[in-house]
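DM from R.C. (forwarded with permission)

"hey, sorry to bug you on a friday — could you get me a structure for this? deadline for the figure draft is monday and I only need the backbone to look sensible"
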Amino acid sequence: MYTGCGYNHLWRNEEPPALLFVLFDLDGTLVDSRESILMSHQEAFAAAGLLSPASAELLALVGLSLRPTFQRLVGDEGPVDQLVALYREAFRRRVSAPGYRETVFAGADEILRNLSAKAQVKLGVATGKSRRGVDRILVGHGWGELFVTVQTADDAPSKPDPAMALQAMAAAGARPHETIMVGDTTFDMLMGKAAGARAIGVSWGHHPPDALLEAGAETVVESFAELERSLWGGSRR
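My reply, with the result:
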């Protein structure tokens, strides 16, 4: 874990709150859709007659909603609307292919089911994906009943605006000090902190650990087992 002080330090001398609301990002945190994202970007730029940016530049923007992503890539005067439509078409075509299913990161399914079974825990999702895309993933992996709230790009401004996190907390009946944002990008960390929540980064996603810490992560975990320990400050509840 990238803290220099170990997972017990998340709550310092505090006890974890009686209610813990864990708000998860989706792409890069729970599921690995990196290949589909990159291929859809490349197809969209090709269809628009443009050269696609490098993979590193594209992945650095994962976590934003589509419009601000393309605004950053081609500028406000560029063909933003066209690229958004082309990306959606390419991504939908890819994920609709027979047998397609996102890879779930090792331990993701287990931690979601373990946490959702705890009476003092509520789970939510806050993602830059569309509602349609999120519903497909949640239903496909049997996660539909695990989350008390799902916030998408259709519901609020793009991360790092705190609106998604604030709406999620309101829906879950959770206060900021009871909420932890878990994600793989600086946008997740910034959103969580702007909403008054704590933030934990994961090391296997799209942004490096140092960037997550700089953006406000209190710790960066290397596995879901480590994340679960961090949530309880080292205790086994």
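R.C.: lifesaver. The CA atoms of residues 67 and 208 lie 24 Å apart.
me: no worries. The chain is about 40% helix and 15% strand.
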